[in-house]
Amino acid sequence: MRLKLAACLIISGGLAACASPPPPPMAAAEPAPPPAPVAMTLPDGMYSGTVVSTDDSRPHCRKLPATARSQVRNGMFALQGLHGKVGPDGSVTGAGRRGMTLSGMFSNGTLDVTTMGHGCGYHYSLTQT
């Protein structure tokens, strides 16, 4: 009887050895790529709003009126003689005469821009009128 049991175990073990191996585990699905950023566009038209000096303590910085206006065409505009443009991510960049710069963001319909040069800075907050 023990011989029969041993023979059965050997045969069943041999059959198990001949059986095909189990398939490899399924690989995890690749995550979907993030959606492409939505390009920001600055609608053409007239923009108006406020301008504030960012440093009133410098005597050589000129005083500007408390309000400002700028005409926008094809995402381009001008403030204080500086020419700016809005990038696809809403960032605003620009430059002008004698090393002056312009930077900011266009978001939620508001053009927030800071101009800097010669130690003088001004912040503009403009919306389409």
Give a brief rundown of this model.
The chain has 129 residues and is mainly beta. The protein has one helix at residues 2-18, and strands at residues 45-53, 67-72, 76-79, 82-86, 91-95, 101-107, 110-117, 120-128. 14% of the residues are buried.
What does this structure look like?
The chain has a domain at 45-128: Beta Barrel (Lipocalin). It contains one helix and eight strands; from the N terminus they run αββββββββ. It has one helix spanning 2-18, and strands at residues 45-53, 67-72, 76-79, 82-86, 91-95, 101-107, 110-117, 120-128. An eight-stranded antiparallel beta sheet has the order 2-1-8-7-6-5-4-3, with no helix packed on it. 14% of the residues are buried. The model has no long low-confidence stretch (mean pLDDT 80).
Features of this protein?
Lipocalin; 8 strands; elongated; eight-stranded antiparallel β-sheet; mainly beta; 13% helix; 129 residues
